[in-house]
Every structure is written in structure tokens, then in C-alpha cells.
Amino acid sequence: MQKEAAPPVTLQQIALQAGVSVSTVSRALARHPAISEETRELVLRLAKESNYDIKRRQGIDHSQIIVVMAVPAISTQMAEPFQLRLLGGIGSAMRERHIDFSISHRVPRDADGLAELMSAHPTGGFIFLGQSQYHEALNKFNKQGRALAVWGAQLEDQNYCSVGTDNFFGGQRATSHLLRLGRRRIAFLGACDVAEIEQRLAGYKSALANHGVEMDASLIQHTKLVYDSGFEAVNDLLDRGVKFDGIVSASDMLAIGAMRALSMHGIVVPDDVSVVGYDDIDVASFSSPALTTIRQDVLKAGHLLVTKAMRQLAGHNSPSERLQTELIVRGSCGG
User: Fold this and answer.
1) What H or E segment, with its residue span, contains residue 334?
2) What is the pLDDT of residue 74?
3) The pLDDT value given to residue 165
4) What residues are paired with 148 via a beta bridge?
5) What spatial distance separates the first Cα and last Cα of the chain, rounded to whole Å?
6) 219 C-beta neighbours (distance < 10 Å), count
7) Greatest CA separation found in the chain?
């Protein structure tokens, strides 16, 4: 009876023997200059002793970056306008480095789908635009040494690298601005099951408390982050007879949809209701009235995501980082 062949040695096994990350092993085998000679010789020796196919590994492009559009389970679109702007920031950073990147056509809906995607690309780095429902799986892959950077929130048990803004402060700042204008019945649109939005909602609640305004749960609308949802959310508030004089929206598209609904009901922005969005996408300054919003610096964010993914590919650690937000005051607030 013929003896079954032993399974091939994996990068993970070599990394465990060498006491380094999988990405370090990958780049050592590719003879990347960022890896020290001592580490490279150790990895090459272990690979040779394990009969690992070094020539096949050396032919792989280890600088490859794959961008994954992490679509929340509540969304039906592959990318929102803000994500497309963020993608532009990533593209700008990659062009400066003279490195190509690709956008995965796969949109994993759960941890199993994410595992399949990662297995299909055993080398290179990943940039995730949103952590969505992948949080625990991303922790696991980070522990395995995969190079990845995530646009998203900073969570308590997180061990992977993320870049994002201070969502709590952004939500607090938007709400405080309306409160300073004298608004007291402020609705919040976008309290969906997405970490960044939940943090913005917490900031909204904090601002109300700081100004001695009691929170009314009827003013919180759980919505998707798209134009139609903003339109429907305002119609729902009006249909239920809920009184409000301000709106804090978790995205600009939501806010623009909300303003459209207000206009159709003869409610004037900002005279009757003041509105603040979030993101400062291009269309925000062209809406009627122009939208007051919380700006996120997508160009800087894109460069940081690329830098952190590339550092991990070179075998270095990349800490998470929070960017500051900026309140951009336009006509939808009247002040």
C-alpha cells in the first residue's frame, strides 16, 4: 500500500519555528531589503530544511495591496460615496509609491467569507474599508501575522491596526453646535449596528447631557446610511407627530435625503429645522442649502492606511491611529 505524502509545509509553520510573523517570513523568502540578513538566513534555512518551495514563493509580488469594501450587513450597495473618496486617498498614496493595488470583487458577508478571501491571497497586504461584521475574524488574522489595516473604529478588544476619526467627539461636536444655536429637539439619524455610528450616537447623547437636555428615544431613527433612508426617516418622524427642530445625521447622504423630505413638507432649512451631516463628501457643498457637516480627512486617512499596511509587510508593527474631525459650517444650520 502506497504511503500518503506528507502535507506541504506552510508559511505559518515556518513563522512559528522562526519566532516571527507570517508576513516577515513571506518577505524574507522574497529577499526583501527591509528584512535583516540574520532573519532572512534563518527563514531560508528553516524553509530548506522543511523542503518548502522557495522558488515559487520568490516569484510572488509581496508588495501587493488588496482593498476590500467591507459592506455592512444592513447595506445593499458595494460602496458609499464616502468610501469612494477614501479609495481615492488610497490610490493617491499608492501612486506616490509607484505600486499598483487591486480592489477585491468579493464582498465577504461573514467570518467564513473573509477566511476564504484571505486564503485566496496568502501574501500581500489588505486594506479594509470598514470592519463591519469582521471584527473577531480580523483579530484572528492579525494574530496569524497577516498584514492588514482597517478603516474603522477603535474597539475595546481590538488587536489589529485601524485608522479612523474620533467618532464620539464628531457626534458630540455636531450636536453641541445645534444646541448652541438654541435647538433642543434634535433627531439623530443612523443609529444602525455599525461601530462608528454607535460611537457618534454616544457623542450625541453626551452633548445632550452636557447641556442639560433630556434625551427622547423617539428622536433616534435607526437607518441605513443612504439618501432614501434619510428621506424615509424624516417622513416617519413627521407621520408619528414627533416634534424636532434639529437633525444630526450619521452621513451626508442621509442628511441630504432628510432635507429633501423636509422641503417636500414645506419645512424650511435652517429656519425651521437645522441639519448637520457627517463626512463632507463632495456633494455636501452643492446641496440646497449647502450642508453643515463633520469633515473626515480622507486624503490623510488613505495615506495612513497604505503606510501602515506596507510597514506590516516589511515586518514592523503598526499602531492604530485616530484623526481629528472638523466642523464645516454651511447654510443648513444658519449659524
Assistant:
1) none
2) 46
3) 95
4) 126
5) 85
6) 20
7) 87
Judge whether 90 and 127 are in contact, CB under 8 Å. yes
Check residue 78 and give its pLDDT: 56
Sequence letter at residue 29: L
Which H, E and C letters describe 183-225, residue by residue? CCCEEEECCCCCHHHHHHHHHHHHHHHHCCCCCCHHHEECCCC
To the nearest 10 degrees (0 to 180), the angle between helices 252-264 and 227-239 is 50
Write down the H helix ranges in the chain: 11-18, 22-29, 37-49, 54-58, 81-96, 111-120, 135-143, 167-180, 195-210, 227-239, 252-264, 298-313
Contacts of 198 (CB under 8 A, 6+ apart): 191
Grid cell of 61 as nine digits: 509580488
| Partners of 276 in beta bridges | 248, 292
Query: 68 near 128, Cβ under 8 Å?
Result: yes
Three cell numbers at 145?
501575522
The yes-or-no verdict on residue 181 having pLDDT over 80 is yes
Ranges 8-12, 234-238, 278-282: which has the least confidence: 8-12
Omega within 30 of 0 (cis) for the link into 289: yes
Contact in structure between 34 and 93 (CB atoms under 8 Å): no
Rounded Cα distance, 25 and 27, in Å: 6
Domains in the chain, please, with CATH?
11-58 (1.10.260), 65-165+297-323 (3.40.50.2300), 167-296 (3.40.50.2300)
CA-based angle 162:167:170, to the nearest 5? 140
Residue with cell 527563514: 43
264/4 Cα distance (integer angstroms): 73
Decide if 225 contacts 75 (C-beta within 8 A): yes
Q: Write out pLDDT tens, residues 24-63.
A: 887 787 776 668 888 888 988 998 888 886 655 554 455 5
Residue with the three cell numbers 470583487? 105
| Contact of 199 with 169, CB cutoff 8 Å | no
Residue matched to cell numbers 485566496: 120
| Unique residue bearing C-alpha cell 434619510 | 230
Dist. CA 165–CA 168, nearest whole Å = 9
Strands 186-189, 147-151: pairing is: unpaired
